[in-house]
């Protein structure tokens, strides 16, 4: 059974909700007090909070209170009556926004889809994961909703000054463009943008379709594409991490026009993966495939491993420097000389640095050998200390 | 009483005191040099004559200990590697003594800064010359210095060419 808390902001919906969400599938508790919502969350195992009917202020208050009470992991969704509220809440952390009126069957379908996500471990762990999760892309979700509601809309997708548009007519994607990209290529690029701002204008669309395929099929393909992209990123490198070209000479390996050459050119001054995906016009999966190859060949390096490499190199070089210097000093002096030779050298090279200091000794020791008795005594002494 | 003289150069002051932690060396207060005394038994004493590598060594010190000099110990610190050129000022000492007096170059390392050192380098020491070895002293390993104290008096029979710092 799904344990739901309804933050009821209009009593007129009480009866309807009770009829709609009844046992055995749903166990609901309704309250119009936010403090009671929080209190219920503290005492119950809550699967989902639904703000019904939602407004941006109520959702924001709920978000703040959940955070304040360290219950950010509890998901919440909004049921809205008016399209402008749908848009207002798009950038909130709502798991989903359902616009009513909606046939009962469709409403339950959407609700159950969301509950399914809630019950998957990766989804429930943190709402922050939602944006980058494999299953969700805000844009795909929005397109899905528009498709289900058979609505007209103009969607604008913007990231770092790069923008694209999607025209939706009666729920069907009529046209899409992103920079010079059109149709499915533009849709893929926009879906793959990880930090894009998306705005939806519910308006009449007079665009001729350039996407011959059915929107449901396109959305399914986009979802698969997005899932694959996120998998690739997880296996490759953090999307925020800066990538660097290891060696300028490696640019010569690839001809102009080769996608790998373009990636390397862009990473000369460091570039993050998500910026690469945004800037480059090629298919994101193709970009990721090549980035992965370049990382494996260590032609491209991630910031973190670059720092490690530099530190390791520095560490190695310190030791080699010391060994080299010590070795050099001994190598220069390591010649077989007799005591007589050394004594004559001393006489010839008796060069005091000044009256008080001179490096060379007047007398030369006989030998450094220790007699066996002395050595034995010393050995035993240190053995005893070690015990 | 038998006295063994050891000439000891430290790259930074205080290195010997750390190297001798756990060894009952005693500072000889009334000496005009920095001298430490280690009594092996009532009839055998080792005297360590300390010099900082950055300072010029007084000639009268060498004259004083010359005939009974049995070991030369160099205490180096990995973090001072850039100053190691100073050691070249002592090259003449090595030049003259290397074939007669066993030398031990003890390099203090901090693995957290210098990286993990292969165990065989630490345990076996490195060949510098027939009578000279380089010992790596990992101060973080409690009794690591004791291992070196033991081997200073009986240089290992490391075959020439193996683990040779001269080939570095």
Q: What would you note in describing this structure?
A:
The complex is a heterodimer of chains A (387) and B (168). A 5-stranded parallel beta sheet of chain A has the order 2-1-3-4-5, with helices on both faces. A 5-stranded antiparallel beta sheet of chain A has the order 9-8-7-6-10. In chain A, strands 12-11-13 form a 3-stranded antiparallel beta sheet. Chain A folds into 3 domains: 1-133, Rossmann fold (3-Layer(aba) Sandwich), CATH 3.40.50.2300; 138-227, no CATH class; 237-304, no CATH class. In chain A, β3 (48-52), α3 (56-68) and β4 form a beta-alpha-beta unit. Helices cover 48% and strands 17% of the residues of chain A. The longest helix of chain A has 31 residues, at 303-333. Chain A has 387 residues and is an alpha/beta fold. With 168 residues, chain B is of the alpha/beta class. Chain B has one domain (2-167): P-loop containing nucleotide triphosphate hydrolases (Rossmann fold), CATH 3.40.50.300. Chain B has helices spanning 15-19, 59-65, 91-97, 111-114, 119-124, 144-153, and strands spanning 2-10, 26-28, 34-41, 44-52, 69-77, 103-109, 126-129, 132-138. Chain B is globular and about 40 Å long. The model of chain B is unreliable at 157-168 (pLDDT under 50). At the A-B interface, α13, α14 and α15 of A face α2, β5, α3, β6 and β7 of B.
Class per helix and strand makeup of chain B: alpha/beta
How many domains make up the 3D coordinates of chain B?
A: 1
Counted up, domains of chain A total: 3
Secondary-structure element series of chain B: EHEEEHEHEHHEEH
Query: Quick one: how many beta strands of chain B?
Result: 8
CATH level 1 class label of the largest domain in chain A: Alpha Beta
Q: Greatest chain-chain interface?
A: A-B, 54 and 67 residues
In quaternary terms, these chains amount to heterodimer
Q: Approximately what portion of the residues of chain A adopt beta-strand conformation?
A: 15-25%
Give the beta-strand count of chain A: 13
Overall pLDDT score of chain A: 78
Which ranges of chain A are low-confidence, i.e. pLDDT below 50, for 5 or more consecutive residues?
121-136, 335-364
The second-level CATH architecture of the largest domain in chain A is 3-Layer(aba) Sandwich
Arithmetic mean pLDDT of chain B: 76
> Shape of chain A, please?
flat
CATH class of chain B: Alpha Beta
For the sheet with most strands of chain B, the description reads: 8 strands, mixed
């Amino acid at each position: 059974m799904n344990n739901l808390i309804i933050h009821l902001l209009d009593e007129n919906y009480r009866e309807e909700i009770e009829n709609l969400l009844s046992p055995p599938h749903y166990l609901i508790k309704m309250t119009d007090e936010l403090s009671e919502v929080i209190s219920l969350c503290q005492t119950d195992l809550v699967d989902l909070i639904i703000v019904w009917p939602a407004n941006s202020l109520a959702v924001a208050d709920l978000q703040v209170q959940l955070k304040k009470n360290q219950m950010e992991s509890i998901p919440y969704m909004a049921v809205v009556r008016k399209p402008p509220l749908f848009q207002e809440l798009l950038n909130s952390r709502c798991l989903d926004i359902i616009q009513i009126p909606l046939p009962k069957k469709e409403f339950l379908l959407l609700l159950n889809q969301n509950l399914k996500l809630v019950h998957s471990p990766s989804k429930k762990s943190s709402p922050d994961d939602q944006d980058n999760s494999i299953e969700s892309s805000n844009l795909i979700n929005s397109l899905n909703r528009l498709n289900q509601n058979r609505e007209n809309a103009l969607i604008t997708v913007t990231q770092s000054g790069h923008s694209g548009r999607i025209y939706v007519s009666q729920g069907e994607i009529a046209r899409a463009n992103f920079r010079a990209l059109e149709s499915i290529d533009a849709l893929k690029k926009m879906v793959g943008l990880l930090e894009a701002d998306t705005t939806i204008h519910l308006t009449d669309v007079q665009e001729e379709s350039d996407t011959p395929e059915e929107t449901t099929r396109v959305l399914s393909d986009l979802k698969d594409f997005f899932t694959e992209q996120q998998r690739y990123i997880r296996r490759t490198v953090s999307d925020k991490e800066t990538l660097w070209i290891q060696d300028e000479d490696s640019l010569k390996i690839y001809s102009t026009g080769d996608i790998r050459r373009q990636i390397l050119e862009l990473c000369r001054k460091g570039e993050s993966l998500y910026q690469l995906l945004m800037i480059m016009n090629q298919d994101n999966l193709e970009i990721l495939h090549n980035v992965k190859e370049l990382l494996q060949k260590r032609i491209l390096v991630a910031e973190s491993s670059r720092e490690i490499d530099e530190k390791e190199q520095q560490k190695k070089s310190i030791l080699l420097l010391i060994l080299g210097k010590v070795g050099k000093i001994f190598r220069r002096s390591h010649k077989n000389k007799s005591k007589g030779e050394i004594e004559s050298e001393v006489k010839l090279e008796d060069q005091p640095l000044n009256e008080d200091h001179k490096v060379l000794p007047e007398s030369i020791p006989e030998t450094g050998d220790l007699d066996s008795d002395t050595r034995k005594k010393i050995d035993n002494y240190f053995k005893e200390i070690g015990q | 009483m038998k006295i063994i003289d050891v000439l000891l150069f430290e790259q930074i002051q205080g290195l010997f005191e750390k190297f001798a932690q756990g060894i009952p060396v005693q500072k000889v207060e009334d000496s005009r040099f920095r001298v430490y005394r280690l009594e092996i038994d009532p009839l055998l004493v080792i005297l360590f004559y300390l010099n900082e590598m950055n300072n010029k060594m007084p000639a009268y010190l060498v004259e004083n200990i010359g005939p009974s000099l049995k070991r030369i110990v160099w205490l180096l610190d990995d973090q001072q590697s850039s100053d190691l050129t100073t050691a070249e000022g002592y090259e003449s000492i090595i030049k003259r003594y290397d074939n007669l007096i066993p030398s031990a170059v003890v390099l203090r390392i901090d693995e957290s800064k210098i990286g993990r050192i292969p165990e065989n380098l630490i345990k076996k020491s490195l060949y510098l010359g027939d009578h000279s070895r380089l010992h790596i002293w990992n101060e973080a390993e409690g009794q690591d210095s004791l291992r070196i104290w033991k081997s200073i008096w009986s240089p290992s029979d490391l075959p020439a060419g193996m683990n040779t710092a001269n080939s570095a």
